[in-house]
Amino acid sequence: MSVLDNWDNWKNFLGDRLHHAQDEGMNNDVINDLAYQIGGYLANQVDAKNEQEKVLADLWSVASKEEQHAIANMMVKLVQNNGSAH
């Protein structure tokens, strides 16, 4: 099963990656920029595996670049308390 198949697994996976990046000293601007790049890749290259991902992909597709950055920043905030390193 892919981490993309289940919304909670996906948030936990992202949370783990976020905590690892923070532990390695990556600052929030870099993290948010990476989230934006990953969001664009997922929206354009990966089929949504659940309803939440479909909603995000639909929102991403109609959003301006500025709005896409906002979506990415919100995803970072959403997963901040997820993962194994709370």
Structural notes for this entry:
By secondary structure, this protein is mainly α. It has one domain (3-79): Cytochrome Bc1 Complex, Chain D, domain 2. Helices cover 72% and strands 0% of the residues. The longest helix is centred in the middle third of the chain and has 18 residues, at 28-45. It is globular and about 35 Å long. The two termini are 24 Å apart. The model has no long low-confidence stretch (mean pLDDT 89).
Tell me the CATH architecture. Answer: Orthogonal Bundle
Tell me the β content. Answer: under 5%
- Per DSSP, the total helix count is 4
For the secondary structure, the number of strands is 0
Distance between the termini: 24 Å
How many domain units? 1
How confident overall, as mean pLDDT? 89
The quaternary state of the protein chains shown equals single chain
CATH topology-level name: Cytochrome Bc1 Complex, Chain D, domain 2
Rg computed from alpha carbons, rounded to a whole number of angstroms: 12 Å
Descriptive labels:
single chain, 86 residues, mainly alpha, Cytochrome Bc1 Complex, Chain D, domain 2, 72% helix, 0% strand
Can you lay out the helices and strands and say which pair or pack?
Blueprint lengths: L6 H17 L4 H18 L5 H12 L2 H15 L7
Structure in a nutshell:
The chain has helices at 7-23, 28-45, 51-62, 65-79. With 86 residues, it is an all-alpha fold. It has one domain: Orthogonal Bundle (Cytochrome Bc1 Complex, Chain D, domain 2), CATH 1.10.760.
